[in-house]
Amino acid sequence: MRDGIAYQVLVNDGGQYSLWPADQAVPAGWRPDGTTGTEQECCAHVDEVWTDMRPKARP
Predict the structure, then answer these.
(1) Interior CA angle at 32 toward 40 and 24, to 5°?
(2) What's 26's DSSP letter?
(3) What are the residues whose beta carbons fall under 8 Å from the beta carbon of 23, sequence distance 6 or more?
(4) pLDDT-based confidence at 1, cuts 50/70/90?
(5) Beta strands of the chain (E only): which ranges?
(6) How far is 8 from 41, CA to CA, in rounded Å?
(7) Mind listing the pLDDT tens digit for each residue in 14-54?
């Protein structure tokens, strides 16, 4: 882990992903997707699951 920081992957209602320090409170509008690890591990996960960068359409 770079500088000893553990990260978690967050996702919002639009299906957009973000990395966030695991020891920080999750910001409003985001929720953890269950993935934690190094920055590199979390980025690899996001690369696998976030294949369409467009936000989900809202009804």
Answers:
(1) 75
(2) P
(3) 6
(4) very low
(5) 7-12, 17-21, 30-37
(6) 10
(7) 899 999 999 999 999 999 999 999 999 999 999 999 887 77
Position 16, amino acid: Q
Place of tokens 């359409």: 57
Average pLDDT value over all residues in the chain: 90
Phi, psi of 26 (to 5 degrees): -70, 130
Strand 7-12 to 17-21 pairing? antiparallel
SS3 (DSSP) at 48: helix
Residue appearing with tokens 């979390």: 42
- Name 54's Cβ contacts closer than 8 Å, sequence gap at least 6: none
